[in-house]
Amino acid sequence: MAQSLRHSLIAGLRSPLPARLVPREATWRYALGAPHLYSTASQDAPPPLFEKLKGDLKSAMRSKDAPRLAVLRAIMSANLNASKTATPIKTDVQLVALMRKIQKAAEEAAAEAKAAGRNDLVEKEDQQIRIMGDYLASSGVESLGEAELKALVQDAIAASQSAGTAAKALVGDAMKRISGALAGKDVDKKQVVALVKELTGQ
After folding, report:
1. In terms of CB atoms within 10 Å, which of 42, 65, 99, 141 comes out highest?
2. Crossing angle of helices 146-162/170-182, nearest 10°?
3. Keywords, A to Z (predicted)?
4. Distance (Å, rounded) from C-alpha 55 to C-alpha 105?
C-alpha cells in the first residue's frame, strides 16, 4: 500500500493535470490490503445488493476484468469507510445512494480530464461510469423519473397550502408530506429540496 501511495504522489508531481485530477485514475481502485468487505463491528446482515457485488468482485478478479474490478473495489472501499461512521450502509437504498456519489465524482473527473485534453483518462472513466450505471439500473431499487418526482412534489405543496401552512414553512411541511412516498426509492434528497424550493418560489 505504501508503495502504491508513493507512486500516486510521484505521478501527481509529474503530471501536467491539476493536482486534484491526477489521483482520479485511482478513484476506482481498491487501495486496501486484505479487504474487509463489510463492517465487522456490525451484527446486521449486509444489503442483498452488496452480497451480489461481492460475488461479482470475485468473478472480476478471476477473469481479470480490470474496469469492472476497479468499480467494485471503489464501492467496497466506500462502504468500508461508511461503516466507520455513524451512518453505515445497511440497506440497498443507502448502497445505491453511495454508488451514485461515486459515479458523480467520476463524471466530474471525466469532465476535468476532457478539459485538460487527457482523452485516455476520459475513456477510462467513461467505461467505468457505464459499468456503474449498469449496476444502478439492475439494483432492484425503484427510482423516480423527473415527471413523477415533480408530480409528487406538486401534490405535497398543494396539500400544505390547503392546510393553511405559512409560506415560510412550506418547504419543510411539503418535505414531511412527501417523505413517505420517497421511502425506499432511489431519490436524491437534495434534488427534492431544490425542486420544492423552486416550485414554492423560495
Report:
1. 99
2. 130
3. Mitochondrion
4. 25
3-class SS of residue 84? coil
d(CA 43, CA 145): 35
Domain boundaries, the chain: 2-142, 146-199
pLDDT tens-digit series, residues 40-99 = 444 567 789 999 999 999 999 999 999 999 999 999 999 999 999 999 999 999 999 999
**Cross-strand bridge partners of residue 142:** 185
Is pTM beyond 0.85 here? no
- Is 2-142 in CATH node 1.10.1510.10? yes
Give the pLDDT confidence of 88-129 residue by residue, as tens digits. 999 999 999 999 999 999 999 999 999 999 999 999 999 999
